[in-house]
């Protein structure tokens, strides 16, 4: 089957959890019949479905006539319409939500601020006017390199207000990564801070900016927020204090009414599979899906205190920290620092104090908390929670169960949401009031999303078998191009099958039609004629009581073609040993079969991850093969982890 790229599935997970009845009763989408009705409506007449949704969901300064123009692989949505995303997030909620907290901010050192919709709106307008005073015009690119403080949201919204294209660079990135991105996008202004707090220390943003600036000549002005220091600016005419820029600016600002297809932001992908791509999103289609998916997937209610833990430097921070929640008028929690600062219970402490109702985080965080045991969780009252979400990687069934039982007290539905920077918004996910969930499955595509599992020839693969995950029809929040590299847009996403978006991920459906993500196609391991997705073997390892996290890669092997190498992190209190290696290999063999039994197990203190918490298996492949890596590591979280793995060679 290798020629059609089918992937063999070995995982068997049969637990099913129906949505709690009282949850369904109040939900936006209450049953699978409701879901099916929406799905059918979208399938029958996509133009009408998306057109109706767009009219309901967004404020239009000028209406659109054409819902979609699709000249594969290029889509234009809601063509003649004009809108403004900042207006949709703020103005239209005023005066009703004037005094409602939009953002509940907590800094790592413990400082707190509540920013109401009214205040947020005024701050955005002042900064928007400030940007205009610097000569920023519609279409200009503005870089944002800030810690997780309310000003990060203010910066994004101010750009949207004046029609500038923002590009947020994660505050933890080095000066090289910053400089590369500023150059690639040709940013005119950079909005930054002197520093931010992380793990009890200052992240030296300003130092990185100073180092990057000489090589980013397009930048005319650097606007500096004071967060950690004394407000002293670096020497030079390019630097200006944030306070100086906004002081005295009017707190009203007429929005720039942009065309639907006006670029909203450029965001670089996580770099799990290679050099990051500058994904470009435009205004109306992105806004529509951001708003709709946030309300449906998180089943938002007016009184929710919603917490998505992602950094605004990632797409999850764009869609589910800033735009989606604000368009829906809910209160969102913003936390600056590390999850375990000053203690292992910081997250749970935040949930208890703010009475958060929804938590949306990543498997990497969940596994890290599992590793610490239930103790820190049990110190806090988490009864305010009513819904849990996961995003970023396949969530191993055991981590899903722990999330549900220990964090959710067994009463909160868990939504495992599959999507990408490129998709702009959630594509495959349970709807918590409707979908019976299975641990580790992202379940079904949302209405209007044609996620299909195909082989290389475009045939649907039979149920139970793995294949390539495609989105076969355009959707409003799809990326429009790779900024500055239109060819890469076509070659990366539309060259497997013409006119169909290739996600790069492998997936399968089970007998009930549930979708299971199997990991990235690049990471598939070919063992003795069987093509295995990494997710299933890793999940089998994580199901072992002593294992916290696992990454599986292939290593060239004379005999088998490819040998399976597993890198394993143990839960606290467990020591590595040869006996444990044998025990784990046997465990995998028993759980999912002999072909998936690792040939080699290596214990590791940590695994190489992107800064957004994804395991970088491409780097582990080199380690497993004993090769020195020459790959792009600009988004790697911690070079030391990689170095330690290299020395581990037996
Ligand atoms: P790059 O494209 O540069 O390699 P990346 O793919 O890690 O980086 P993102 O867009 O941040 O960048 O991540 C999207 C990917 O994350 C998906 O393609 C998928 O592999 C993985 N992913 C996200 N959510 C889930 C999920 N719920 N289940 C399984 N995998 C997920
Ligand atoms: Mg990707």
UniProtKB/TrEMBL annotation:
User: What cofactor does this one take?
Assistant: Mg(2+)
Q: Which GO terms describe its molecular function?
A: acetate-CoA ligase activity
Positions of modified residues (N6-acetyllysine) = 614
Identify the residues that bind ATP.
392-394, 416-421, 505, 520, 531
* Catalysed transformations (reactions): acetate + ATP + CoA = acetyl-CoA + AMP + diphosphate
Residues annotated as binding CoA: 198-201, 316
Q: How is it modified after translation?
A: Acetylated. Deacetylation by the SIR2-homolog deacetylase activates the enzyme.
Spell out the CDD domains in the cross-references: ACS
Q: Which PROSITE patterns match?
A: AMP_BINDING
Which parts of the sequence bind Mg(2+)?
542, 544, 547
Task: Indicate the segments forming the AMP-binding enzyme C-terminal domain, all copies.
Answer: 536-614
What positions does the domain Acetyl-coenzyme A synthetase N-terminal occupy? Answer: 35-89
Give residue ranges for domain AMP-dependent synthetase/ligase.
Answer: 92-475
Keywords annotated in UniProt: Acetylation, ATP-binding, Ligase, Magnesium, Metal-binding, Nucleotide-binding
Q: Which InterPro entries match?
A: Ac_CoA_lig, ACAS_N, AMP-bd_C, AMP-bd_C_sf, AMP-binding_CS, AMP-dep_synth/lig_dom, ANL_N_sf
UniProt keyword Cell wall biogenesis/degradation present: no
Q: Which SUPFAM superfamilies match?
A: Acetyl-CoA synthetase-like
Q: What is its EC number?
A: 6.2.1.1
**Family, similarity comment:** Belongs to the ATP-dependent AMP-binding enzyme family.
The task this protein performs is described as: Catalyzes the conversion of acetate into acetyl-CoA (AcCoA), an essential intermediate at the junction of anabolic and catabolic pathways. AcsA undergoes a two-step reaction. In the first half reaction, AcsA combines acetate with ATP to form acetyl-adenylate (AcAMP) intermediate. In the second half reaction, it can then transfer the acetyl group from AcAMP to the sulfhydryl group of CoA, forming the product AcCoA.
- The name of this protein is Acetyl-coenzyme A synthetase
Source organism per entry reads: Corallococcus soli
